[in-house]
Amino acid sequence: MLLLAIESSCDETAVAILSGSPGEPARILASEISSQIELHRVYGGVVPELASRNHSLHLRPLVEQALATAELTLKDIDCFAATSGPGLASSLLIGATAAKALAVAAGKPFIAVNHLEGHLLSPYVGQGTVPPHIALIVSGGHTLLLDVENPGSYRRLGSTRDDAAGEAFDKVGKMLGLPYPGGPEIEKTAKGGDPNAFRFPRSMLKDPGFDFSFSGLKTAVLYTLTDQNPGYGTPRTSDLPDLCASFQQAVIDVLVVKTLRAARHTGRSTIALSGGVSLNQALRDGFARACEKEGLSLLTADSGLCTDNAAMIAFAALLHHFEGRHSPLDADIDPNLALAP
Ligand code: ATP
Ligand code: FE
Ligand code: MG
């Protein structure tokens, strides 16, 4: 079974081809990504108009490149898939329309995939099965804690009430004068810093629920900056590593505590981390230590599958296909598509 998937929900155009059979680990035959990070960097964030124009420019060459990498032609593909939401409407439309057109032309099925389901399942691409587990998605736009019974059966335990974890990294990075996106820059800068130098808040830890909040933490960093330098927000460069390490530790502490609490609450014994922020090594280490202590298994996605990519979309689509869940060709995109109630 060969499946080609397109991801274009935000600022990466991506095409992947996977081969798979039920119960076996999927094989990634090609996973091509054209990142627009450089293009948007000068604006400090993603500009939707520029993103969609670039998706249309890059999509066809990327499909051709993916087929060449996999040594296949379009005729070999059994099923086509694309992200249908959540994301930027004008960006989603490019990939979803292209995948439907390919499916119609080839007379093969089309599958619309929820981008967050792609992130959620990404740690399992190389595994044969998806066991019940607690999933934490920490990406640029989402912080979502879910109880996963099996693929397709998700119960939301908690989510962020304001900024997503990645968004907090990006906004704090901007405040600190670091290049966009802030996440990887903060991690790099934090390496020489003391995580206990600044005592930033761990929001909502006392709240018995599983929701998160990162805007208070962001404001606390801002106040620290303006205290240091009234009327001027730029930190002393000597403080940068400590600020980054302390901010990063505050995010990690909250994520670890709440996720482990969710595992205890549901009786699940596996935790799976996904999304761009799960690339953060300090976060992975924090989770590894806590899971070991509590006898839980921890699964993280391969590094190429954490930030946006089409292999995770193809994998989610593959699981839909195995259950015969195809999408109608008039299935619309939905910028606010939800994953679980
Ligand atoms: P969503 O999936 O919610 O729509 P997205 O697809 O833009 O958002 P991803 O591509 O999964 O999100 O991840 C991007 C985010 O990950 C950015 O906010 C980025 O700063 C963050 N990130 C990437 N690497 C790291 C890192 N090493 N440490 C912390 N954050 C990181
Ligand atoms: Fe994403
Ligand atoms: Mg992105």
Name its key features.
341 residues, alpha/beta, Nucleotidyltransferase, domain 5, 2 domains, 19% strand, binds magnesium ion
Q: Can you give a write-up of this model?
A:
The protein has helices at 37-41, 48-70, 89-106, 115-121, 165-175, 182-190, 215-228, 240-266, 281-294, 311-322; strands at residues 2-7, 12-19, 27-35, 79-85, 110-114, 133-138, 143-150, 153-159, 270-274, 297-300. The chain has 341 residues and is α/β, with parallel strands linked by helices. The protein folds into two domains: 2-125 and 305-322, Nucleotidyltransferase, domain 5; 133-300, ATPase, nucleotide binding domain (Nucleotidyltransferase, domain 5). The strands form two sheets. It has a five-stranded mixed sheet, with helices on both faces. Helix 3 (89-106) links the parallel strand 4 and strand 5 (110-114). Helix 5 (165-175) runs parallel beside helix 7 (215-228) and helix 6 packs across helix 8. The structure holds adenosine-5'-triphosphate, fe (iii) ion and magnesium ion. Its cofactor is Fe(2+). Residues 28-315 form the Gcp-like domain.
